[in-house]
Prior knowledge:
With 583 residues, the protein is an alpha/beta fold. Helices cover 34% and strands 14% of the residues. The chain folds into 3 domains: 3-77, Roll (Ubiquitin-like (UB roll)), CATH 3.10.20; 92-208, Alpha-Beta Plaits; 213-571, Rossmann fold, CATH 3.40.50.1780. Strands 2-1-5-3-4 form a 5-stranded mixed sheet, sandwiched between helices. It is globular.
Amino acid sequence: MTKIKANINNIEVEVEKGTTILEAARDAQVAIPTLCKHQDIDPSAACGICIVKVEGFSRMIRACCTPVEEGMSVTTHDPEIIETRRTVLELILSNHPNDCLKCGRNNICELQKLAADFGIREDHFEEHLRNLPEDKSTKNIELIPQKCILCGRCIEVCQQVQDVWALSFLERGFNTRISPAGDIVLSESPCIRCGQCSAHCPTGAIFEYDQTRQAWDALLDEKKHCVVQIAPAVRVTVGEAFGYEPGENLTGKLYTLLRRMGFNAVFDTNFGADVTIMEEAFEFAEKFKSSPEELPLITTCCPSWVDFMEKFYPDIIKHFSSCKSPHQILGVLSKTYYARSKGIDPADIFMVSIMPCTAKKHEITRSYQMAASGYNDVDLVLTTRELSRMISQAGLEFTNLAESESDNILGEYSGAGTIFGTTGGVMEAALRTASYNITGEEFKEMNYKPVRGLEGVREASLEIAGKEIRIAVAHGMGNIETVLNKVRQARDKGDEMPYHFIEVMACPGGCIGGGGQPYGVTDEIRSKRASGLYKDDEKKKLRTSHSNPAVKKLYSEFLQAPMSEKSRKLLHTTFKPRPIYKK
Length: 583
């Protein structure tokens, strides 16, 4: 790449050609404020707060969308620039509700922080608030358009990153507003409930559907036997709300915390992930050996991807693994295997899943075999952000809590279970056990690097039992479409399928970048979170799902074998075409 030199506040910087002023300023340790720009998406230049002066220019320009040029001299802060930014903020605030104390983003709102930084204490412009209806139709995320500052982040991530196109701007000028395309409610739109809009919104305009009160109500109900599980990715992200670095593994503290909050038993979704691998790896191995024409097999852990597939790719359903996601598996086992072993009436068990994902709230409402035991597999889903709020409400000093163990009957897990939380982790875990099922020997490359990383699509080929296995890993819905379209094209032309095994995750980075995770995620933070999961995997004595003694006991005492009649009834589901939207 061509390097160019420029001057930022009298500091010389050397950057690659095409670098924006905003990015170059960071290299000079200068922070230019912005509300519309996020590292995940292209600049929209909507907010106007990042204005700077450039020598030779007659007007201020926006740093987020202006590339640096050779010899450019930039001033990012002076009294006039600061006053202009303050005026822009005051104009934005004149169209924004003044109800911070009741807002879900109170104290973690980007607009609120900038208003504090600029010392805005008075209203200098007449207030113009519009009476726009809230949209809570999905029961997963809430759309509160009155709090929208028209930054465009949610639209960019929904349209350009996820390629879902559920959100758009309607009307023009002063009447511009955010809405589902066609001005319908969100539940009737193409929305796949991934929550990336809420994760990227700088204010409280899009927010996860809060169910913390329901969790407290259940914990206070003496008739309920409350049990809880934590997803792989939650353990390396929840600490960010309490001053920990991204990727810090707080598993032991979480177990202690949840018991102190009142849960009767603390399980781990990683155990469910190990069981998922037992089922999916068996499913793949059987097809690979006896019915290769039915491949590729596509993994199923992500409910947003399931929603997307049923709406946009119903013709791919036959390639989809029928295995439920790990938290649904652990949910049904809590109301069968655990209930039987402890002599508890399953009707009294209330299962709460702590998930990195807003779409998991929708998944537990799907009617397709999500109550195979006669009871809902999972009763309530809380996101990582909701758990963080509950920790504060409980008055527990999270950083000072001692570590403890899970309830091992549904809590003991292998390293393979923990890496489910990052893109490529499901594939890596599955290969370890699928290889064993096919050859009877352990997989030689426990750290299988070809499926790791944050590239949108990763392809690899390996040999097992003398046969080539072609695999693909994709994260972010736009990248998933690239992979699926290759499958469609090969099928339509009658060509050999490009892949045998495919892992997909709707959110960039997989669950570590889920829509219910702490705000402010970037690829740097995603990498740190993933690293925390890989470290947990590497330190485990057992790194394969099939070697987990608790899983072995589950099958010998209860399920009999992977894909047995009982496991099919309890651990598997069905999918149905909903081709409302076409790609």
